[in-house]
Amino acid sequence: MDRPIQTTVGVVAAKEGVYDTAVPEMDPHGDPLFRVAFRTPEGVKIFWINSFDYYALEVGMKGELRYQGDTLLSFGHWIQQSFNLDGSRK
Question: What is the pLDDT of residues 37-78, one digit of tens each?
């Protein structure tokens, strides 16, 4: 069963990069993976994102956060459509 799309207000609380093969099952190509944490009224939400989305964000940015399960769909006007970790559009 698909998880519903959630929409809330989020603030970028932290960003972190992971390199090498720390999580090979998430990125079979060996590209860098990044994590971003958002503060929301429901609590902290953490997502794995690609470098394109990572560099579009700065700590403290506030906007509408849309996600489905553990997948970030969009954030404000900075991330309108997220990419899969293999670079393809979702």
Answer: 999 999 999 998 888 888 899 999 999 999 999 889 999 999
Q: Is residue 82 assigned to a domain?
A: no
Assign 55 to helix, strand or coil: helix
Going through 3-70 in order, the beta strands assigned E by DSSP cover: 5-18, 33-40, 43-49, 62-68
> Which two tokens mark 64?
């509408």
d(CA 45, CA 36): 8
Residue 50's domain spans which residues? 5-75
- Number of domains, the chain: 1
Check: CB of residue 65 under 8 Å from CB of residue 40: yes
Q: The tokens of 73 are what?
A: 């769909």
Question: For the whole model, what pTM was predicted?
Answer: 0.74
Residue 87 lies in a domain: no
Residue 45 tokens, joined? 């939400």
